[in-house]
TrEMBL record:
Keyword Translocase in annotation: no
Any single Pfam family the record assigns to this protein: BKACE
Lineage: Bacteria, Pseudomonadati, Pseudomonadota, Alphaproteobacteria, Rhodobacterales
Keywords (A to Z) from UniProt: Metal-binding, Transferase, Zinc
Co-factor requirement: Zn(2+)
Record has Zinc as a keyword: yes
Name of the featured protein: NADPH:quinone reductase
Gene3D superfamilies according to UniProt: Aldolase class I
Signal peptide per UniProt: none
Top-rank taxon, per record: Bacteria
Molecular function terms from GO: 3-keto-5-aminohexanoate cleavage activity; metal ion binding
Species, as recorded: Fuscovulum blasticum DSM 2131
C-alpha cells in the first residue's frame, strides 16, 4: 500500500502585495473559509491559514478577523486540520539615520501577543518561524527564548507546533528545542527553501543537507517558492517527507499568469501519487502527527 503523504494547503500567506498580484487570493473570512473547504475536497489534510484585511487585502493579525475566519471555516464542516500562522507581529523596521530607532511599521510584540489568536482558536497546529532572519528591509525576531515560550504556550493548549526552518541554522535551533523536550515526542518540522528571505536556496544540495539534520523521530515536510516547489515536492515524497502547495508559495503559473489554489493542489496530488505516495486523509494526518483523534 502506498505511503500516506500529508498535503498542506497554504491558501493565502502573508506576502503584503499578494492580493494585488493575484486576484484569486482568498482575502475575506468568507473567501478563506471557502478556500479551505475546497482544499479539503481536493485532498489536503491540513490548511495553513493567514488572515487579511478585507479592505485592502494586506496581511493582518486582527483578533476579530481571526475569530471570524476560524468560525467560518469550522461552519463549513470541512474535514481538515487547521494550521494557523503566528508569523505576524515579529518584525523590526529600523531607521538607520536616526541611530537605528524603530520605525512605525515595526510590529514586534511579545510571544504571548503573537500567539494569542492561535491559543484562543485551539487549532490542531500553530506555526513557529524558527530563528531571527532578514525579510527584505525588516528583521523577523525569534530569539531562542521566544521560541521556547511559544513552544510551551502551544503545548499547554494542546496545539502541535509546526517549526518552519528557512536555513541550516534554524534546524540546529529546532534540534536544541527537541533535545530540551519542548516539541513533544513527535516534532513537526517544515523545510522552507528559496523564499527570498535570505535563507537556504531551492537546490537539491540544500534540501539534502537540511534533510540530513532532521531530528530522529520528527515528522517533516518541505516546500519551495514558485515553480521550484514542483521538484521539491517530488523529492520530499521520495525521501519520506510531506508537502505543501498553494497561493502562499506560488502566485503564478508557468506562463506567468495568476494561478489558483485548486490548480496548485491538483498538481500536488498528482506529484504525490506519481512519486509513489497518496494524499493522507485527515485522520491519517492526525496519526502521523500523533494528534488526538477528532471527537
Amino acid at each position: 500500500m502506498s505511503r500516506p503523504v500529508i498535503l498542506t494547503a497554504c491558501i493565502n500567506g502573508g506576502r503584503p502585495d499578494a492580493a494585488a498580484l493575484n486576484p484569486n487570493l482568498p482575502v475575506t473570512p468568507a473567501q478563506i473559509a471557502a478556500a479551505v473547504a475546497e482544499a479539503a475536497a481536493l485532498g489536503a489534510a491540513v490548511a495553513h491559514v493567514h488572515v487579511r484585511d478585507p479592505k485592502d487585502g494586506r496581511p493582518s493579525n486582527d483578533p476579530g478577523l481571526w475569530a471570524e475566519t476560524v468560525a467560518r471555516i469550522r461552519a463549513t464542516g470541512a474535514d481538515i486540520l487547521l494550521n494557523l500562522s503566528a508569523s505576524m507581529d515579529g518584525l523590526l523596521y529600523l531607521d538607520d539615520e536616526a541611530g537605528f530607532a524603530l520605525l512605525p511599521a515595526s510590529t514586534l510584540r511579545p510571544v504571548s501577543g503573537r500567539t494569542a489568536h492561535v491559543i484562543a482558536a485551539r487549532p490542531e497546529i500553530g506555526t513557529m518561524d524558527c530563528g531571527t532572519f532578514a525579510m527584505g528591509p525588516a528583521i523577523h525576531v525569534a530569539r531562542i527564548d521566544d521560541l521556547r515560550e511559544m513552544a510551551r504556550l502551544y503545548a499547554r493548549a494542546g496545539i502541535r507546533a509546526e517549526v518552519e526552518c528557512f536555513d541550516f541554522g534554524h534546524l540546529e535551533i529546532a534540534r536544541r528545542l527537541v533535545a530540551e523536550g519542548l516539541l513533544g515526542a513527535r516534532p513537526f518540522l517544515q523545510i522552507c527553501l528559496g523564499t527570498g528571505y535570505g535563507g537556504a536556496p531551492a537546490t537539491r544540495a540544500a534540501l539534502l543537507a537540511m534533510y540530513e539534520r532532521i531530528p530522529e523521530g520528527a515528522v517533516w515536510a518541505a516546500f519551495a517558492a514558485a515553480e521550484e516547489n514542483l521538484w521539491v515536492a517530488r523529492e520530499a515524497v521520495a525521501l519520506g517527507g510531506h508537502v505543501r502547495a498553494g497561493l502562499e508559495d506560488t502566485l503564478f503559473d508557468s506562463a506567468g499568469l495568476p494561478t489558483t489554489n485548486a490548480a496548485l493542489l491538483t498538481t500536488a496530488v498528482a506529484i504525490i501519487t506519481g512519486a509513489g505516495g497518496r494524499p493522507a486523509k485527515p485522520a491519517e494526518a492526525r496519526q502521523i502527527l500523533d494528534l488526538p483523534a477528532n471527537a
